[in-house]
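Dear H.,

Thanks for agreeing to be a second pair of eyes. The structure we're designing against is below in token form, covering all 256 positions.
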């Protein structure tokens, strides 16, 4: 199978290998998954999940979990089960280490955007900074898989770069001027129209959006990893958010 048909594993591998050669070992993983303080980024991801779901006993799928920026914040929480997926073993190993053999946490190498769990297993599926690296066909596969694995009434949250949001569009044109200087992982921009179509086609009853520049309220709940009293009461996620809710009953046609 060519690289283009296999989740761009080759492109991500090239990026990881390049960083391994050019950075001290302790900086490779955190640079690979993006900019920003890993604890603060992960805390925003946790706060977002809290905005849409209780945490008590829930099953969470984290597609493209990276080095475990979110995982580290879920460890002290009363979640029931967690499945973290990624395509680069060295990166996944860091997330595994974060979970410190907690039996609630499981990690798998992801293949062709599949979620290796049964239908209706999950209460929440998240993909943070994931679909920004995928072809449209793969984004649709991820959304279909999220729909399959979610229980009725549950939500999937995918962050994305919105071509129609001025600040993201400006990023696109900056990126366009030097995209050939990258090391293999694509940076994909999309629109709310495209994601709405993918979501309804996959069977989600409700597809809604939050702009990456919107001010979101923090819960104020304590964290073991940072002092929440030192954080502003609101935060901006940066990437925009697509929130897909599976209908309580399956009357919605997948082919509408
Ligand atoms: C920008 S990083 C974000 C990681 C994590 N979600 C976070 O917020 O810290 C994107 C991650 O998605 C992974 N990835 C890319 N394509 C994937 C795919 N098809 N399936 C699973 N993971 C993928 C990459 O290896 C990378 O670790």
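And this is the sequence the design step returned. I haven't edited it by hand at all.
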């Amino acid at each position: 199978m060519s690289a283009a048909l296999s989740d761009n594993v080759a492109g991500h591998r090239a990026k990881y290998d390049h960083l391994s050669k050019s950075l001290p070992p302790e900086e490779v993983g955190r640079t690979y998954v993006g900019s920003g303080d890993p604890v603060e980024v992960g805390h925003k991801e946790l706060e977002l999940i809290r905005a849409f779901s209780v945490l008590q006993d829930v099953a969470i799928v984290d597609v493209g979990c990276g080095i475990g920026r979110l995982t580290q914040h879920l460890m002290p929480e009363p979640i029931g089960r967690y499945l973290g997926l990624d395509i680069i073993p060295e990166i996944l190993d860091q997330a595994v280490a974060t979970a410190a053999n907690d039996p609630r946490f499981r990690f798998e190498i992801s293949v062709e955007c599949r979620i290796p769990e049964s239908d209706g297993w999950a209460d929440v599926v998240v993909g943070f900074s994931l679909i920004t690296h995928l072809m449209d066909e793969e984004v649709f596969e991820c959304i279909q898989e999220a729909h399959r694995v979610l229980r009725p009434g549950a939500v999937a949250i995918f962050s994305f770069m919105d071509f129609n949001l001025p600040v993201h569009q400006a990023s696109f044109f900056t990126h366009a001027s030097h995209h050939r200087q990258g090391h293999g992982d694509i940076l994909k921009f999309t629109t709310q129209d495209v994601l709405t179509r993918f979501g309804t086609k996959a069977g989600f009853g409700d597809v809604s959006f939050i702009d990456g520049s919107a001010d979101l309220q923090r819960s104020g709940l304590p964290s073991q990893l940072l002092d929440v009293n030192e954080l502003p009461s609101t935060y901006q996620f940066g990437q925009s958010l697509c929130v897909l809710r599976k209908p309580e009953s399956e009357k919605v046609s997948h082919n509408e």
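Two observations from my side: Confidence is low (pLDDT under 50) at residues 252-256. The beta strands are 59-63, 81-86, 105-109, 122-127, 150-162, 189-190, 206-210, 216-217, 234-235, 240-245.

Warmly,
E.
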